[in-house]
C-alpha cells in the first residue's frame, strides 16, 4: 500500500469559531512540522504560517516551543488503555498484538504525525528523548509487569523498545522498503514472535 | 558498563604536520559534532572551532557541509569485509554474529562517532537517510544473499535493518537502560535469535 508523504501543510479553513478552532489549527500545524522537521528543525514562525495565524498568537497560547511540543504530542488514546486491550488478548499473543497496536497508531491520521514527530525529535532533542523513554518505561514495562517476567523486566522492556522504535524508524521515518509499504498483518506476523520472545522467552541463547 | 558521553570535543594537539594532520583534525571534529547534534544541527563554524582552524579552511578542503559529512562518515572497515567474516562463521550463527559485529562497530572509538552521526542524522536529513538505506541494501542484503533466502530477501533485509537500527538508537542515541550499558555478549545472545529468524526463519507466524 502506498501512502501520502509524512507531513502535509495544514489548509486554512476560512474563519474559525474562536479560540478552540485556532488552538486546534496551531496544534495540527505543530504536529505536521515536528513530524517533518523534528523538534530542532521546526520553528514557531513556520508553524504559525501553516496555521494561518501570527507567531505572537502561538506564543500567547503556548508560551515556548517546548510547551507547544508537549501539547501537540499528547496522545488522544492513553497508551495504558491500548496496552490493557493488548494484554487482555492473552500472554501468548502479546508480541504480535503489541506490534499490531503500534502499527495502527502509526497508520491512523489522528496519531500518525504525533508518533513520527516523537521518533524524529527524540534522536536529536533531549526533551523528546525523555518523553520517548518515559513512554517506554510506562507503557512497555507496564505490559511486561502484567505477564510477570520477574527480575529482568527492565532488560526485556528495553529489547522490546529497540524493536518497536526500529520498526517505526524504518517504516515511517526512513521509509526503508518493503517494510515501509508492507501491510500490518504481514508485519505483525513477521515481527510479533521476536517481540514475544523479548517479553516471555529465553534470552540466553539457544534456537530462536 | 558505564561509558563516556557520546561525543567529546576534539582537543588541539599543538602544531600539526601540514595538510594531512589538519584534514584529520577537521574530520574528527566533524564526526564528533555530527554525532552529537546530527547533520542539521552541526555547523561548519562549530566544527572549525573544535578543530582549531578557520572556517574558510574547512570550506577550502571539503567544499560543502554535505561533502564534509560524506567524507567524515566514510567507514575505515569496508562493511562487506565485516560481513564476509560474519558469513564465514556459518549460516546458523549469522544473526548473533551480525549483532555482535555491529555492536563492536559502535563500541570502537575508531567507528563509534561515525555510526552515531549516521543514525542521528538519518532521521532528519535525506542525504544521511540515503546513506543509511544504501548501507542496509548493500550490507544486509549482501549477507542474506549468501545464505540464500530467495524471493523475500528484500523484506528480510528490512526486518533485520529495523532491529539493528532500533538497537543502535536505543543503545547509543537514546541510551535507554539497561540496553545502553549491557555487555555485547548479553545483547548478542538476546537479540541474535530474532535477527536469525529474520534472515532464515519462518516469517508467517507460529511459535517464536
Short key terms for the protein model shown above:
homodimer; 208 residues; mainly alpha; Arc Repressor Mutant, subunit A; Tetracycline Repressor, domain 2; 2 domains; elongated
Query: What proportion of the residues of chain A form beta strands (DSSP E)?
Result: under 5%
CATH class of the largest domain in chain A: Mainly Alpha
CATH homolog superfamily of the largest domain in chain A:
Tetracycline Repressor, domain 2
Order of helices and strands of chain A: HHHHHHHHHH
Major protein interface: A-B, 53 and 53 residues
Structural class of chain A: mainly alpha
CATH architecture term of the largest domain in chain A? Orthogonal Bundle
Low-confidence stretches of chain A: 1-8, 11-16
> Compute the gyration radius of chain A: what is it?
19 Å
Overall geometry of chain A? elongated
Number of helices of chain A: 10
Amino acid at each position: 500500500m502506498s501512502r501520502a508523504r509524512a507531513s502535509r501543510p495544514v489548509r486554512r479553513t476560512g474563519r474559525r469559531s474562536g479560540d478552540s478552532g485556532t488552538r486546534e489549527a496551531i496544534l495540527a500545524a505543530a504536529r505536521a512540522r515536528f513530524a517533518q522537521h523534528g523538534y530542532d528543525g521546526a520553528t514557531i514562525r513556520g508553524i504559525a504560517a501553516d496555521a494561518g495565524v501570527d507567531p505572537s498568537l502561538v506564543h500567547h497560547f503556548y508560551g515556548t516551543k517546548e510547551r507547544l511540543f508537549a501539547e501537540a504530542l499528547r496522545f488522544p488514546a492513553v497508551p495504558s488503555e491500548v496496552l490493557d486491550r493488548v494484554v487482555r488478548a492473552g500472554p501468548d499473543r502479546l508480541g504480535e498484538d503489541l506490534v499490531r497496536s503500534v502499527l495502527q497508531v502509526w497508520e491512523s491520521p489522528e496519531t500518525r504525525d504525533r508518533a513520527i514527530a516523537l521518533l524524529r525529535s527524540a534522536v536529536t532533542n533531549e526533551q523528546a528523548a525523555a518523553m520517548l523513554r518515559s513512554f517506554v518505561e510506562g507503557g512497555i514495562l507496564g505490559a511486561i509487569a502484567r505477564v510477570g517476567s520477574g527480575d529482568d523486566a527492565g532488560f526485556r522492556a528495553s529489547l522490546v523498545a529497540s524493536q518497536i522504535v526500529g520498526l517505526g524508524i524504518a517504516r515511517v521515518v526512513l521509509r526503508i522498503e518493503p517494510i515501509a509499504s508492507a501491510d500490518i498483518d504481514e508485519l505483525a506476523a513477521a515481527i510479533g514472535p521476536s517481540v514475544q520472545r523479548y517479553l516471555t522467552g529465553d534470552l540466553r541463547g539457544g534456537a530462536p
